[in-house]
């Protein structure tokens, strides 16, 4: 679903991503972990075309993304969330998800909000149920607490009916109960709905429980890859985390 080949991105003298290769297989949850500053979000930003790599290749759904703009990815079926929330704070919860739902229709923000066919509203309401936000549908997004804002970002990403979901630290700042709900939802999205998830996450309890495969980065480079059990006992991984 995603093939990253020898990806490098320099910011001036800093090598944020250093010759990274990575293959994400269909219907798996693939975690990308590593200490702060390891290059995880930068890798996401290269895949979603917000950053232009210095070198290397990225293919998504078999297609080279180098000619694509960031806004071309959603119609292909690739959705993402942001580590630092990027919601429309002044709009309602429902409206935030509607914006995602209308990605296949084109048009600007105003048109997307105005058009509310029952089928689209039904889909949005269903997603709000799934992420536990149904009762907040008319609340202003900025009035939600942090955990609920994160779930709203996830609902908006799901509204585009993606095949690939890129999640940047979805569990950060969530309470234990919310992490449990996220765990169940991600499993269901992969097992039942057939999605593929690339997950950047620091909450190890979640990563180790739900990932099929884990890639570990440090200083921009891949230092380990394997099943959760394999990477957990890898001395390089232990050292990278203890050294933090
Ligand atoms: P992670 O998500 O693993 O914590 P990042 O990918 O955000 O790490 O950052 C990797 C490195 O690249 C860090 O040293 C960070 O300061 C640097 N970096 C990220 N984005 C930029 C940018 N836009 N300009 C300059 N440096 C950046
Ligand atoms: Mg990050």
UniProtKB/TrEMBL annotation:
InterPro entries, alphabetized: AAA+_ATPase, ABC_AA/LPS_Transport, ABC_transporter-like_ATP-bd, BCA_ABC_TP_C, P-loop_NTPase
Keyword terms: ATP-binding, Nucleotide-binding, Transport
Domain of life of the native organism: Bacteria
Keyword Transmembrane helix attached: no
Entry GO terms, CC: plasma membrane
Example GO molecular function: ATP binding
PROSITE patterns: ABC_TRANSPORTER_2
Domain ABC transporter: start-end pairs: 2-244
Descriptive protein name: Branched-chain amino acid transport system ATP-binding protein
Organism: Muricoccus roseus
């Amino acid at each position: 679903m995603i093939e990253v080949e020898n990806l490098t991105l320099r910011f001036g003298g800093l090598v944020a991503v250093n010759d990274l290769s990575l293959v994400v297989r269909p219907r798996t949850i693939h975690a990308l972990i590593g200490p702060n500053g390891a290059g995880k979000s930068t890798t996401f930003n290269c895949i979603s075309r917000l950053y232009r790599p210095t070198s290397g290749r990225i293919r998504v759904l078999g297609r080279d993304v180098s000619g694509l703009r960031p806004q071309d990815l959603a119609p292909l079926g690739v959705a993402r969330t942001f580590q630092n929330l990027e919601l429309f704070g002044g709009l309602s919860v429902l409206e935030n998800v509607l914006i995602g739902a209308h990605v296949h229709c084109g048009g600007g923000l105003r048109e997307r909000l105005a058009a509310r066919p029952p089928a689209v509203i039904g889909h949005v309401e269903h997603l709000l149920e799934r992420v536990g936000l149904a009762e907040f549908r008319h609340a202003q997004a900025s009035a939600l607490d942090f955990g609920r804002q994160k779930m709203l970002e996830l609902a908006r990403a799901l509204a585009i009916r993606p095949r690939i979901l890129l999640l940047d630290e979805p569990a950060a700042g969530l309470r234990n109960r919310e992490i449990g709900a996220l765990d169940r939802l991600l499993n269901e999205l992969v097992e039942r709905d057939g999605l593929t998830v690339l997950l950047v996450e620091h909450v190890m309890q979640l990563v180790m429980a739900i990932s099929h495969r884990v890639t570990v980065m440090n200083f921009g480079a891949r230092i380990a890859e394997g099943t959760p059990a394999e990477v957990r006992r890898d001395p390089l991984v232990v050292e990278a985390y203890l050294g933090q």
